[in-house]
Design brief:
34% helix, alpha+beta, 161 residues, 8 strands
Length: 161
Amino acid sequence: MNKIYNSQDGFTLIEVLIAISISSIVILSFNTIILSSYQIYDRNLNSIERSQKAMVFTSWLKTKIDSSSNSYISKNDNLLTIKEKDSSYLYKLNLYESQGKPAVGIEKYQFQDNILSYIEKEPILNGVIDLKIEEINYTDHKYFFVKLTFEDNKTFNSIIY
């Protein structure tokens, strides 16, 4: 039994190469679209996370200030200083490195017998490279303007009153 092959059966090499080229272009286009979408998603997710962290930080700071007996910008070191009510503890908001990354933290001091003693440092918010806090006195109210600058140079501004 001999089989007779028809020259019209199958595809030529050129047809196969053209089909592979068109398929490659389509696949690369979809890949580029998916990669771009992921990068936009990742950038937006980081922005949302940064904003949420900054809002939690300012909410925490407002609670600390509201529950304090006194809060002010220290003339000696220009740091926000918070005196805890009915306590000998004093807190200073400062920038430093936590596990090799920039962070905003709180330094805890104890004021006893006219001596201010350093107790510990605790990170509050990682990824912050700059912190500016200004005290604004308006009529009978004291406000604090807070500006956080993150590692990607994005800023977050808030007013605590």
